[in-house]
Design goal:
Order of helices and strands: HEEEHEH
Number of domains: 1
Oligomer: single chain
Number of strands: 4
Distance between the termini: 25 Å
Strand order of the largest sheet: 1-4
Largest sheet: 2 strands, parallel
Strand content: 15-25%
Amino acid sequence: MESLEADFRSFADMCVEAVGLELTTLDLMVGGRVVPERAERLIALTRKFDFRYTVHRVVSSNLTDPAVYCYQIDAAKALGLRRRQWRLAI
């Protein structure tokens, strides 16, 4: 999370407006499930910065697999994103 915070600070300095989050590389999920403590740390970090956030999946994952899709939606919900804010990159 520390390196992500440094990245966010750099983005803020560059006047970036939106940041894409690849949740599986952030160690937010284990076995396809959101780890609440990790989600809380990420939520606290995202609240420090006035970015719009999008949620992305691993390129190698199969979004046609309903389980994978549901895990990503669960992660978006854990971050407090409303449905109209979900932008799951394909």
